[in-house]
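Just scan my protein:

——
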Amino acid sequence: MTTALLIFLVFVSITLVITYWAARRSSGANAFFAANRQITAWQNGFAVAGDYMSAASFLGIAGIIAFQGYDGFMYSVGWLVAYLTVLLIVAEPLRNAGKYTMADVLAYRLSPRPVRAMASLSTLTVSIFYMIAQMVGAGALVALLLKDSGISYQTAVIGVGADPGMSNVICRAVADELDDIDRINLYWAAEFVGQENPILCPPYNIATVLAEYAHSSTQFLEGKHVECGPREGREFLDLPQPWGHCEFFYSPHSEPLTVPLAEGFKEKNIREFTWKLHLPHREHEAWVGLVKAGFSDFSDPLIAKGVAITPLEFLSELIARNIERNRDRIPSQESHEIHLAIGRGTRRGLPVTVRCEVIVRPNEMYKPYVDACTSMNASIAAQLILAGPLRPGVFAPESYFDVPSYFRELRRREFSVRTVVGE
């Protein structure tokens, strides 16, 4: 291992440790966006410098100065002046308005839905072009650091951007067992074992949970993408303990948008692909109750005693305060997850049902992980990319990774993996 690569890995490790430490201390919108307004001037300066000193700064500015001379230097000065403009003209009015983003302010002043739609569109447009340059720069840097390892530039780009989803790969395992696909239904369920928690503790970001319960979703039905209403597609499944009799419903996730169009699915005439969610039973009841109470429009501001606040801001602060005040009442619970894909179609002309499941139970190996299923995929991706023939390009996980090899890595991490084929 070269000195440069060692320094790079140390730097990345320190960054991940700081990120993990900061994430555990953050709760609520104020903590996420403004660190509870406890940042000192020096800390804020380092944060701004961290934004400023990106791959575009070091590589792009150096390159433009090399090729354009003084004009390239003035471009970097313009960048610095733009930061001051943002601080003076945008940041201060945002703080005075008690908002965190331009979209929040404009949505409060104008019609919320079109404002947020345009804000999302502009953010995605800018981010796509910005991230393309960042990924190319990161790929070039990683390729340089690993130049003696035989890893090509194209593979470095793939490796930096790859994070396979377990759900995608188990769907591929189902598809590989079928010659013609009628439908694949994907389910995710979680359940707690232990004393019932008297405090509502969100399993992940509150806005994400509310969106899963309150927003419409896009599913792949009858060979095309269809928008479905919140919590439509209700279905009950009997699963092994501790899940038992579970209610599932449609939830907004990316898999129905991409998997039916991927290699290995589309050419097999897939007609239906859905994603359904089940949270632990009592937590499920609580989130449904919050949606019924009006928190479904969580970004639409309301006026309380002359002060504008969104339902999401109120709920985030309330839940964070409740958790902090009652931390000693929160019992120790074991979290169990199941990722399940059920496919129906034909094989050799006969009707077949394929069931592929990955069960994740408490284990000392990944006890520190917040979500082992998601957190471990980056390392699996890196190992599988380096283990086989290199394929330059951009691929979805279900198209790139070999299913048996991926499942082998899951079993090494003591996940339970099972595929059953029946009539």
